[in-house]
Design a protein that fits this description.
single chain, 64 residues, 2 helices, elongated
Length: 64
């Protein structure tokens, strides 16, 4: 026996509700990523100094 949705329910199915929730999360995630890039908090290529790059290369050589 399969359960029938309530006739007075505003949502037609739980699948629709979950899909809406996932879409909202994706939008929120995208917005946060955009804000992070806008503020310069992301790991962009221009954020490291020359000294940081030299130290990174040195560590790579040491570790093999």
């Amino acid at each position: 026996m399969r359960l029938q949705p309530l006739s007075s329910s505003a949502l037609p199915s739980i699948r629709d509700f979950l899909a809406m929730d996932e879409a909202a999360e994706a939008v929120e995630k995208r917005r946060k990523r955009k804000e992070k890039k806008k503020s310069g908090g992301g790991s962009g290529a221009g954020t490291k100094s020359a000294e940081d790059k030299v130290n990174r290369d040195y560590q790579r050589i040491i570790r093999g």
